[in-house]
Amino acid sequence: MNTFKIFVLCALLFWPFCALAVEEESAVENEADQVKTGQPELERVYIVSEYRYEPVKGGKDSDIGQSLCGTRCDALSVDYLNYTSPGGWRMIKVSDKQELVVDLDNPFLSGKCICIAEEYMIKINDLYMSK
Amino acid sequence: MNNTITNIMAFIIKFAILNSLILIFIGWAPKTYAAQDVPALSPEEIQSYGERMYREGILPSGEPMKAFVSGDIPVSGTAFTCVSCHLRSGLGSIEGEVTTSPTNGRLLYEPREPFIKGFEHVPSFHNYAVYFPVRPAYTDESLAELIAGGIDPTGRSVMKVMPVYDIDDSDMAILIAYLKTLSEKPSPGVSENEIKFATVIVEGTDPVAVKSMIAPLEFAVNRKNSLSKASETNDRVARMGYNMLGPDLLKKRFSLARWILKGPSSSWRAQLDAYYQADPVFALLGGISEGDWEPVHRFCEENQIPNILPIVDYPVLSDKDWYTLYFSRGVRQEGEAAARYLRGMADLFIGRNVVQVIRDNRKGQALADGFREIWADTGHAATIDIILKEGEQFSQERLQQIIADLKPAALILWDDSSALAAFDDFADIQEGPGLVMASGTFVGESLWTVPEKSREFIYFTYPYRLPHDDVRFDISVRKVLLGKPADNFDRNLIKQSYITNELLGKALMDMRGEYYRDYFFDAIGMMRDEYYPLYERVGFGPGQRFVSKGCFIVQLGKGEKPKLERRSEWVLR
Amino acid sequence: MKHFCLLVALFTFLPGIFVATGSEAGEGRYERSIQSVAIPDVVLVNHRGEKVRIKSLLETDEPVIVDFIYATCTTICPILSAGFANLQRKFGQEIEKVNLVSISIDPENDTPKAMGEYMERYQAKPGWDFLSGSRKDVDRVMKAFDAYFRDKMDHQPLNFIRSPGDGKWLRLYGLMSSSDLINELQKMRVK
């Protein structure tokens, strides 16, 4: 009987805290929803570590191809500081170095451009009290 | 016994004398510099000769100074000028592991202590002085010894980083006289309790644009003044302010005057002179003009007044001008980026033309000029330029005729959105150009409504961070709006002015209480690259006067709500 | 007696000689180490505006010296570049036998024009190339040399000398005098 009384007492004491917790959760969810409508929370980006251009057999555009492939792969790659500087976002590695074939979209070049990139996901940083 | 000792002593004395004679012969005796009168020249002449020695390494005779680096082989003083390390204000620099001490007379002729006097307890200040050992004050003689011999008054050698200069006594006197005038009294516009700023507004500019430019600047000024005011009564704020700004900057209030320029640009110079005469300011912040900016640029240059980040599309481009810091090279920068992008593949065009279609207004001409300037260095044939006069619409027929007649490998379109309709059936054209390039800012909102089938061959220049990436920076921009709805303002201009606000704070804090206009720019030049709203990356550097150096080449992606996709990096080389 | 006097004379003399020669010469101390570098296959642009595939520029049969500078640099680069300029002057006619490569760590600002002006200031002769490129490509080269600085303001004085024999690089860290650099190069060539 005594144990029961103590239990009831504790329940009554802690009840307000539970209520508060529920309130907070929903507030956070609402905020997350708001941001979601503003822009997608999950975005995937690449960071390219190296690239190569494979000219077609007998092709002599190896140097230009390498240079333009570099431009394309570097365009695909992101500068991670653009995601970490504003605060509130974090990058999570999704895949290790994978080879991506990028369309050079150039009628004057016939070879293949391959970027070796890691894929990252951009998420709101809700782990910490960030900026 | 006594005899032997006397003999020995005589011997020692003789050898000591011989020793000294030999050493003097070798040249070890310290070079004595008689503090001679500075040669009979007017103060202006001394100033200009001394400045030439300091900034260009050229002696009054016109010859380059002779410098000896690391104690060994001579180099020309023009490669190793004083200004390159001590900077224009003479207040020194910090780069990597090397800290250069101030070389202006006022600080040289004071003894150096391990803390900046008055700021002994400011933790956030970069107490550069701790990097240098304590030394007594210089005199004219010991300063000459340092410059010519590389030894400071404590006997320490500075030759590891600083060259020694072989110049004669009268030139040395001129240089020392110049150093005494360098950064001596604080610049105008700074008093004990106030720093005055102004912003230049051309009358007739769109009021929303003016409002957007001013709001972040007023935010900066008001925030600083509230901090000053609050620190007078609130201890906690006082402590925070002291730690962040130092006692001197904390107590100073800022003021921002508006200098409104009326009438034609030829009359602006007189108005600026009048404003300045009435109330001299330390620096100009921001500023806005939809057309000319040159009179303001000249005013700043000739009066040596800094102007940071005016919002202009047509900045004055110069390799030597010092006193205005611009966001970018303006509209031209897009043309330059387009040329660099094409240059990379120009060898593949195999003699085919590059055609520019140019709207005959200021914007179109600026874009075309930028393109031509970069294209000229490539060694390829010049572009074929087709001018669209006022009121002339770029039609599909015109486009097809150009393609048939000139068979261009690439077509560059410097026109507004009305020209995009000509490309609706582009995909059907046989043997058309491999790509079409247009200006993202010129076509404006039509950038987002390019029909799907045209998207794969039309490229745009886009001089900002992509919008879907820039939203992450919105939160910092909202800060300066203080709750006002963002729709009342021009988003891009608010972002630009936000950068000015940030830069002002940083630069003033870095100046450590030394309020000199040249040092203002020197401090900005030592800042690290930043990631601010609007521009993908902004960078600084000693003498660099354009903070954004990049412009993306983009294409519109697929689908109903397309995103812009990059096809180049931020800065193309 | 005579010997004693001679000894006294010697000891009076010697300090004088030491003081007169060498102590003030700014012989900086620097650190040496050997490292392997996997040069990335990127295309940079030189101060004449020509595209250069850096792998073929650096992996040759001749000695190569590489340093990292930028055109508006204030303190460290003038010393590094003066070293290169002096090296070129010293070698005179034989200069084609050594390749000097300066790589810009401020590619945003260093256009071929800006680099050309820098080279003129140091009276650079053929055989010394100043390279710039895209930011990411330059980062790749810096990382390959283990000389990556996220910001140009944090850069350090580094010279790298390649030995054509085994393809390894000698890393020289510190502000060196020209004579030190020339000595290191001679040692490398002799190998």
Which features does this protein show?
heterotrimer, B: alpha/beta, seven-stranded mixed β-sheet, five-stranded parallel β-sheet, 18 helices, 14% strand, C: 191 residues, alpha+beta, Glutaredoxin, eight-stranded mixed β-sheet, 8 strands
3D architecture notes:
The complex is a heterotrimer of chains A (131), B (573) and C (191). With 131 residues, chain A is an alpha+beta fold. Chain A has helices spanning 2-38, 62-76, 81-84; strands at residues 43-54, 89-102, 112-124. Chain A has 2 domains: 1-38; 41-124, no CATH class. Chain A has 3 helices and 3 strands. Chain A has a 3-stranded antiparallel sheet. The radius of gyration of chain A is 26 Å and the shape is rod-shaped. Chain B is an alpha/beta fold and 573 residues long. Chain B folds into 4 domains: 1-30; 43-181, no CATH class; 194-330 and 475-514, Rossmann fold; 332-462 and 553-566, Rossmann fold (3-Layer(aba) Sandwich), CATH 3.40.50.2300. In chain B, 38% of the residues lie in helices and 14% in strands. Chain B has helices spanning 2-26, 43-56, 82-86, 105-108, 140-149, 169-181, 207-233, 235-251, 268-278, 294-303, 332-343, 362-376, 396-406, 440-443, 467-470, 474-481, 491-510, 517-525, and strands at residues 66-68, 74-76, 93-95, 98-100, 164-166, 194-202, 253-261, 283-285, 288-289, 307-308, 311-312, 324-325, 354-359, 384-388, 410-414, 435-439, 458-462, 552-556, 564-566. In chain B, the strands form 5 sheets. Chain B has a 7-stranded mixed sheet with strand order 14-13-15-16-17-18-19. Chain B has a 5-stranded parallel sheet with strand order 7-6-8-10-12, with helices on both faces. A 3-stranded antiparallel sheet of chain B has the order 2-1-5. In chain B, helix 9 packs across helix 10. Chain C is an alpha+beta fold and 191 residues long. An 8-stranded mixed sheet of chain C has the order 1-8-7-4-5-6-2-3, with helices on both faces. Chains B and C meet through helix 1 and strand 3 of B and helix 1, helix 3 and helix 4 of C.
